[in-house]
Amino acid sequence: MAKSSQANQANADQMTQSLRDTVVAMVRRDGPDLSARQLAVFLTCYLSDNAHTVRGLAAELNVSKPAITRALDRLEDLRLARRTADPMDRRSVLITHTPQGNGFLRDLRTIVNETSAAAQEKVAAPVRKAPRARRTEELRRAS
Fold it and tell me: Name one GO biological process term (predicted).
């Protein structure tokens, strides 16, 4: 049980470090700087094929409709999302993708892949070094 708990903690630590590295890479790049809420709204809209409304996003993210509206205002200012009238219900607004938003998602995926690869390399490096260290120690003892 203790080993499982330690493994879970190590995994959580690794994921937290990977999240930090991803956020730092996003901050350092020359692109839009999104808050956590804005990023959550953006990713919710872009990672799902479903049509999204302010009401639906508010329910899914468990935040108020005004908070979603503010996040969408910022995303629209950055041209990462667009609000369009729902053709089935003109009172409702649908959130749609934009070319700039598709590009931002592509960049974000690249950043996540790079930080994940770097994290995996950090984990794999000691494992690769261990057999070499054992061989070196065995050779030293044999001398």
Answer: response to stress
SS3 of the chain: helix, strand, coil, percent, to 5: 70, 10, 20
pLDDT band at 97; cut points 50, 70, 90? very high
Integer Cα distance of 34 and 91 in angstroms? 28
Treating both helix axes as pointing N-terminal to C-terminal, what angle do 36-46 and 54-61 enclose, rounded to 10 degrees? Answer: 110
Distance between CA atoms of residues 62 and 75, nearest Å: 19
Report d(CA 25, CA 21) in Å as an integer. Answer: 6
Place of tokens 């990023």: 39
Beta carbons of 81 and 42 less than 8 angstroms apart = yes
Q: Where are the alpha helices (DSSP H) in 47-95?
A: 54-61, 65-77
- The count of other CB atoms within 10 Å of the CB of residue 49 is 5
